[in-house]
Amino acid sequence: MLVTGAAGLVGRMVTRAFADHGAAATALVLEDPGDLAEVGADRVVIGDAADVGLVREALADVDAVVHLAALPTPRYGTAQEGFGGGWR
Prior knowledge:
The protein has helices at 9-20, 36-39, 52-58, 79-84, and strands spanning 2-4, 26-29, 43-46, 65-67. The chain has 4 helices and 4 strands. 33% of the residues lie in helices and 16% in strands. It has a domain at 2-61. It is globular, with a radius of gyration of 13 Å. Strands 3-2-1-4 form a 4-stranded parallel β-sheet, with helices on both faces. It is of the alpha/beta class.
């Protein structure tokens, strides 16, 4: 599994749930908080989920994605940043 936004509250819970059920989880995060292995992440990829090359790297050996990376509130960015993603 690839969990984007794995450092967030929900992302941590999802990553832990996968680990508790024996599923390997790759965490994709903007910044490594340093404790994602304790939460259950087998691998941590650091960078922006809008970076296509980075996401391709993070998808190595992954068969499913839980996409939780997002702005926590629309006040932190434009509508395009919050909903458009920037994928090309």
